Amino acid sequence: MCVAFPGKVIEISGDFGKIDFGNGTIRDNILLSLVNAQIGDYVLVHAGYAIQVIDEDEARRTIEIWNEMTKDLSHEKKKQDFYEIIGGSE
């Protein structure tokens, strides 16, 4: 099963973007070449790749679902799971 997490494109350099996942989590070098994303767009990210452009409402609903699903996990476990989804580490 593939899981992706939404983030906002805040910078683009060539085929790569800087993505803001909220709560102070920003990641560089997310590959954008699979989608037609612009600065300000929300994208779903899996394993370092933006795989789909989504609207802001869908991004917010996805984050709410994530928060509900992980509400009983420790902070460290949430971080670990998040980084496994988007790729990379803290």
UniProtKB/TrEMBL annotation:
<dbReference type="InterPro" id="IPR001109">
    <property type="entry name" value="Hydrogenase_HupF/HypC"/>
</dbReference>
<dbReference type="GO" id="GO:0051604">
    <property type="term" value="P:protein maturation"/>
</dbReference>
<dbReference type="Pfam" id="PF01455">
    <property type="entry name" value="HupF_HypC"/>
</dbReference>
<dbReference type="GO" id="GO:1902670">
    <property type="term" value="F:carbon dioxide binding"/>
</dbReference>
<comment type="similarity">
    <text>Belongs to the HupF/HypC family.</text>
</comment>
<dbReference type="GO" id="GO:0005506">
    <property type="term" value="F:iron ion binding"/>
</dbReference>
<protein>
    <submittedName>
        <fullName>HypC/HybG/HupF family hydrogenase formation chaperone</fullName>
    </submittedName>
</protein>
